[in-house]
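User: two proteins, same treatment. go.

Assistant:
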Amino acid sequence: MSTEIQTQSETVSESEALVLREENEGLVTLTLNRPRQFNALSEEVLAALQEELDRIAEDQQARLVVIAGNGKAFCAGHDLKQMSAKREEDYYRTLFKQCSKMMLTLNQMPQPVIAKVQGIATAAGCQLVAACDLAVAADDSRFATSGINVGLFCSTPSVPVSRNLGRKQAMELLLTGHFIDAHTALQWGLVNRVVPASRLDQEVADLAGSIMSKSWVAVATGKRMFYKQLELPLESAYDYASGVMAGNMMADDVEEGVDAFMQKRTPVWKHQ
């Protein structure tokens, strides 16, 4: 069902909302809703996304998030018109911190997040794709970190991009500003799957359904562990992962999962 989005203590209609929210049995879809601006990330859009993500992270009924864009583009990055109107370094620091907080939330929230990409994903829009846990793209979508073309290196986008791509591919994307197509993005590791645009909705639904059929305890534990261990030296990562896995073994769902495997039946998860 579609719902109204409340932003900055004001309730607005769905047609005016900067971020649309739709819920379906634990699957929450957030759709950027500035199609005429190619879903550029204005301050207001960032605030609306942050508010929704914070709310979802605390919602025990929410199991997975899909981020999509309304119209012909996924996201064209920051709102350059808004940015250029305030040429103050303190303003830019605040803006980029606001954006970075939202991107970090995607990794830190317990629910897996899938980017559903159509059209273009440029600069901070490409960053948004890279910051999501998973990404599915239409075969006609394109990706770029294009700030370099206006004299601005995409520093904050480089953080998740360089953690998705190999160094050489990341630097090519960042230093040239050139677009890459969806199949190149797949080859480089920016997206998980590429499908015809007509199949995009179904492919995302299939991927989401596969994840949501698993134990919520395992999914949430695994996501938190995955990002934490990446920050650690190898030996420390193994030590941390061993502790997490031992704790996970004590979950009721593991006992049920093992019993179901032995009995050749589908497990019935308690999600605890």
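Protein 2:
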Amino acid sequence: MIELILSQGRIADRKNGTIEGALLTAKAIEQTYGVTAMSHGIPEPAKIDDWTDSLAQADATLRGLSETVESGLKDGKLPVMVANTCSASLATLPIVARELPDAVVLWIDAHGDFNTPDTTDSGYLGGMVVAAACGLWDSGHGSGLKAEQVLIVGGRDIDPQEARLLDEHRVRVLPPQPYLMDKVISNVGNRPVWIHIDWDVLEPGYIPADYTVPGGLLPDDIRLLLSRLAPQIRGLEIAEYHAGNDTSGKRDPVVEILKTISPVLGQQTIG
């Protein structure tokens, strides 16, 4: 059964459009699958600030997301979080570590998000999420995730110091390459899976996102992976769709999103 969760508070958003993107996506899921989203946070304008300020501003939103994900897992539901930014995962990954200690976390993202306050050049909270969950720095929202549980899929824009930390902690990174999805399946094995998707992992032009990088995956790559892993998936979170930033005019991004994640949503009963 789906537990649809919507993030609507600013969580380090540096550009307007991601909060709206999350709302549009959640509404489409509601209409398509007959489920009602539990929403957390009040929209506020984007701004460029240091991680210390954005973390403090997001505190209530993050705590609400954390509580809802935890209760969903304990009730045997499948949490599906539609988030504005990857920073929302500060709330979810520590819960995954506690409630699903054997799970593999597939961080499907063009970036590693494994910086710390000591290594970040940008001061951007979203670039430090996985490192916080793995205990490299204290976000105030928990940790407990083991580095060996994490598999970064599609990563191809990683800072030098971040790469050093990933190597030091033996976090597996699989950049776009031939037979990528077969390699992911091999790494996962029979273990349960928690999936995070930042839409910048895609080749630019499919789903508008900030911080896009050429040489990405295709939506069908992800859809096929989700289809193959569907029985093992224990949670899904999607982030960083920037509404109003679509310049291609070729496709409806929300339709593309729902098509991509349909193997997860389509197998669930609705309560």
